[in-house]
TrEMBL record:
UniProt keyword RNA-binding, yes or no: no
Name this polypeptide is given: Nonsense-mediated mRNA decay factor SMG8
Purpose of the protein: Involved in nonsense-mediated decay (NMD) of mRNAs containing premature stop codons. Probable component of kinase complex containing nonC and recruited to stalled ribosomes.
Pfam families for this protein: Smg8_Smg9
Gene responsible for this protein: LOC108020885
The species this protein was found in: Drosophila suzukii
Length: 975
């Protein structure tokens, strides 16, 4: 280590050359870095014998060399580098005071070094709280050393007011001394030359002085103003230190001492220390830029301001008055050196403790040492408190000292203890709030709400850096409490409601506690239904159960949908790719385009046309597709499944007959305006009853008897798979006469309808019957063999029929409210709301699957399209139905699943009940929580073009419930 002497021509003295004295030049003080002392300085200090007063300089600085000695007129050598824990010594010959400059983390230069070291590793995140605690702990360690090796401690503050956080530092110093140092220091000093210090292990209760480098610039620097600032600051500091027991009436229990009736606060008012160079440069620039034109006298004054002293290059004038002389004398005497020497003299005179404590002087502890004794004392404490602390695993036989080395920093972190205490209080409050409000059994949504309430209760007390960890612990405790026999099953129903039964208790049937009000298949009886958890409960079991309680359901004629019939006992559900269902075309041939099938007729013109699928317009009114065809999923409407394809492509003869009938209709002599909106229906020769074939799948169609379809039939499902049960219902609830358009649906027949929304919509359809050309030769013979009134309608060619069909799109909400729609976006409000073309709006447009229920309720219930009412006309034609529901954002288009579409009998009231829940191959399509106003069809929709018309089959056995509406494939026209 090098030794420095301020102002010497020899800037460095090697340690081996300490015996050579060093002469002072230009400066009147010596400076060196502890522990090396120049020999000549040591000789002068020995001359003082036991009259050496040690003064410690600690506090803040904002210069590059961390120098706090500038107010004393001293500074370190230019080559000096500030380091944390370094002690720079200063001695002015002819005085009895040795000044120790402690370099700590409160100096900006050292603080910058530590921050740079932390930033060298970018992988470790910078934590300000832990960094500040570490910096304060290092400062407390150096401050402890100063309080034990110094008689006087001067705290330097760069600000203009007292920093209240210094009181916290004093509290930590008092705690560290009483709880750590006094546990091991007296015992470890007994075997050293420093044993004479006694049980208190310090030179004395050091007197604390406060030095403020800067005085407020806007205040006058007179004796009265400066003294007022000093007295005011003294009163503030004294009250704070006394209030927090830093200064007490006993020197044994007091950390530091404050003199009574003597100044212990000093403001440097006459010398600007550590000025802000940038701020000063900015002020000079502003003064130069905005300075007004100066007169000659002002320029002289500016020149005189550059003089080294007043009166320079000026003739002697009148003598100064007494007030000015007093001002100059105060400026000369008001220096920090004079301020310090007054306290040094108290220590030399032996009255250091007089006035500081309310006790007799001889009871106090005060030691004046010579340089050798003090140096040994300093070496011992510096090693115990500073050097060994750098290695927490330092070997020592004293258990208290080992605890000091390992846990000193942690013990000073009072904020961490404080925040931990608050978080503990908040944790208890949060857990109590959670447990007190928790029911016997509850689900995850209730758990989340209770946890949120517990978090709010926690935040009333818990704060600080540990709050995040405490909240995690709160969540873990609440989670454990919930899972300890209080957790619900929470199996989601098909309507997205969780099961409320206990999870750990075995139960055969799930129950969400949600009850829906639904109507039976025929719509006459309403009943309460539990929230379904599987597709069979939703679409089949409830309707079978309520049918037993309905007087009408047991009497109506039901259409029998094809279902799976197993041939083995270990049958299973077919496996599908959930995300990309494959289109199987190997068993039934390539699927046909819906556009090509529905393009066989034009609703606007009322004429049959046959065009290729690729030539059909994408958005024509008769087109049921709402999206372009996708190569992955095939056509949106698979005609082989829907049944229209089997009828339209039954044989080449059918196509030829259809084309020929179109030609006949085009060449007809009747050219009235009504013919433009007519639909042409071709009448074929009835087949013999004994040669009639029951409706069934085509010859190339085979169904699996070992695997069933897990969901509903849709357009891209495997042709060979059938469901276990029907999800649809088609029933004839009576003759057409039971409906009166004047009164609508009566409560005794259809219950639960909202007022004014219980009417069906009339639909007028114009037809023209045309006989097949190939059958003309057999027509008269057949007519003679079967005379009767019914056959008289077939006598003439070109007979025109005007059909009146009544159609109703019924919606039902979970509260049992039912209503009809008169448009895709309008609820029927009464009979007066029905116009001439009202029904066209519901049969020729996409009807939304879900619509907000108009019932008055705080909760916005969604009504679902559940039934389609059809009243067929009394005419020699059958109405054919083939509804298709598109859900899942166009991914699935569900159908009835019949190979041949059902035919509805004449002059009858039919009701098609749609599924309550829609499910793809293995993907449940839940209803939306709410509908977006911009996209009401997002939840699903019924495609247009579900109705068709065909000639009546006189051989059809309509009185057989099991075979109702089932006939061989025939030619028909889509309405």
């Amino acid at each position: 280590m090098h030794l420095y002497q301020a102002g010497s021509t020899e800037t460095a003295v090697p340690k081996s050359c300490k015996q050579f004295p060093v002469k002072m030049e230009m400066k009147d003080y010596y400076t060196w870095t502890y522990p090396d002392i120049p020999e000549n300085v040591a000789q002068e200090l020995r001359k003082l014998n036991c009259s050496l007063v040690v003064v410690g300089i600690v506090g803040r600085s904002n210069c590059d060399q961390a120098n706090k000695m500038q107010a004393f007129g001293m500074e370190p050598p230019i080559e000096h580098t500030a380091r944390d824990g370094q002690v720079q010594c200063y001695y002015k010959p002819g005085t009895n005071s040795l000044l120790l400059h402690f370099e700590t983390t409160y100096d900006e230069a050292i603080l910058g070094q530590v921050i740079d070291a932390c930033m060298e590793n970018p992988d470790i995140p910078f934590d300000f709280d832990s960094f500040y605690e570490r910096m304060r702990s290092r400062f407390v360690r150096m401050m402890l050393l100063a309080l034990h090796v110094c008689h006087i401690v001067v705290y330097v503050e760069t600000g203009q007011t007292f920093d209240p956080t210094l009181v916290t530092v004093f509290q930590l110093l008092k705690f560290a001394r009483e709880q750590h140092l006094m546990q091991f220091l007296p015992q470890m000093l007994r075997e050293t030359p420093a044993a004479r210090m006694g049980e208190k292990a310090r030179l004395c209760a050091p007197r604390i002085l406060f030095l403020f480098d800067n005085f407020p610039r806007d205040e006058p620097k007179t004796r009265e103003c400066v003294s007022a600032y000093e007295f005011q600051t003294e009163d503030c500091i004294y009250e704070l230190l006394r209030h927090h027991n830093i200064v007490t009436n006993s020197s044994n229990s007091s950390l530091v001492a404050l003199p009574n009736n003597k100044q212990f606060v000093f403001f440097n008012a006459h010398e600007e220390l550590h000025p802000d160079k940038l701020l000063k440069a900015i002020e000079c620039l502003n003064l130069a830029m905005y300075k007004p034109d100066a007169k000659e006298e002002e320029e002289d004054l500016e020149i005189l301001e550059l003089a080294p002293f007043e009166g320079f290059v000026k003739p002697f004038g009148a003598p100064l008055d007494e007030k000015e002389l007093e001002k100059q004398q105060y400026k000369k005497d008001h220096t920090v050196w004079h301020f310090l020497q007054r306290h040094v003299q108290d220590a030399l005179l032996g009255c250091f403790d007089e006035g500081s404590f309310k006790q007799l002087p001889h009871l106090g502890q005060f030691h004046l040492l010579n340089i050798q004794e003090w140096h040994d004392w300093m070496d011992t404490l510096y090693k115990l408190l500073v050097e060994n602390a750098k290695n927490p695993n330092q070997e020592t036989s004293n258990e208290d000292y080992r605890l000091f080395l390992q846990s000193f920093d942690e013990s000073l972190n009072y904020e961490k203890k404080f925040w931990a205490h608050l978080c503990e209080l908040g944790l208890k409050k949060g857990i109590s709030a959670y447990k007190s409000a928790a029911p016997a059994n509850y689900g995850s949504s209730t758990h989340k709400q209770l946890l949120a309430d517990a978090t709010v209760a926690f935040e009333e007390e818990g704060r600080g850096p540990q709050a995040k960890a405490a909240l995690a612990k709160l969540a873990a405790v609440c989670q454990k409490h919930w899972q300890d026999g209080r957790q619900q099953c929470e199996q989601l129903s098909l309507r997205s409601h969780p099961c409320t039964l206990p999870k750990n208790v075995p139960h055969d049937k799930h129950n969400s506690g949600v009850i829906h009000i639904s109507s039976c298949n025929c719509g006459r009886t309403q009943g309460r239904r539990e929230d379904p958890f599987n597709l069979r409960q939703a679409n089949y079991e409830f309707y079978e159960h309520i049918a037993q309680m309905c007087n009408l359901c047991v009497k109506v004629k039901q259409y029998q949908f094809p279902i799976f019939e197993p041939s083995v006992s270990d049958y299973r559900a077919a496996a599908f790719e959930a995300a990309f269902p494959l289109l199987h075309t190997g068993k039934s041939g390539p699927p046909q385009d819906e556009e090509g099938a529905e393009g066989l007729e034009d609703e606007e013109e009322g004429q049959e046309q046959q065009q290729p699928a690729e030539e059909q317009p994408q958005n024509s009114p008769s087109n049921g597709c709402s999206q372009p065809l996708s190569p992955t999923f095939g056509s949106d409407l698979n005609m082989s499944i829907a049944g229209f394809g089997a009828s339209l492509n039954e044989s080449e003869a059918s196509s030829e007959q259809l084309t020929h009938s179109e030609a006949n209709s085009t060449s007809s002599d009747t050219s009235s305006a009504d013919t433009e909106n007519e639909l042409v229906v071709q009448i074929q020769e009835p087949v013999k009853k004994e040669s009639r074939i029951d409706a069934g799948p085509p010859d190339n169609y085979s169904t699996s008897t070992t695997e069933y379809l897990p969901g509903l039939v849709h357009t891209v499902s495997d042709f060979g798979l059938l469901p276990l049960f029907p999800s649809w219902s088609l029933a004839c609830v009576g003759p057409s006469s039971i409906y009166s358009h004047n009164t609508g649906l009566q409560e005794h027949f259809q219950s639960g309808f909202l007022s004014g929304a219980n009417f069906l919509l009339p639909w007028d359809v114009q037809l023209r019957l045309v006989h097949a050309p190939k059958q003309q030769q057999h027509h008269s013979h057949h007519q003679q063999q079967h005379p009767g009134k019914k056959q008289q309608r077939w006598k003439k060619q070109g007979d025109r029929l005007s059909l009146k069909i009544f159609v109703g799109m019924e919606y039902e909400c979970s509260r049992g409210h039912r209503f009809m729609m008169c448009a895709p976006d309008r609820v029927l409000r009464g009979g007066a709301d029905i116009e001439r073309d009202t029904c066209s709006k519901v049969v020729h447009n996409n009807m939304p699957l879900y619509y907000p229920c108009p019932c008055r309720s705080q909760t916005n219930y969604l009504a679902q399209l559940m039934r389609i009412h059809v009243v067929t006309p009394k005419a020699p034609v059958n109405i054919i139905v083939d509804p298709k529901v598109c859900v899942g954002k166009g991914k699935y288009t569900f159908t009835l699943g019949s190979i041949i579409p059902p035919r509805l009998s004449q002059s009858a009231y039919w009701i098609i009940r749609l599924p309550f829940v829609y499910q793809g191959d293995d993907v449940l399509i839940a209803p939306p929580d709410k509908l977006e106003p911009d996209d009401p069809l997002a939840g699903g929709y019924l495609l247009p073009g579900m109705f068709g018309v065909a000639e009546t089959d006189p051989t059809l056995e309509l009185n057989e419930p099991g075979r109702m509406g089932v006939s061989a494939a025939g030619n028909f026209t889509r309405i």
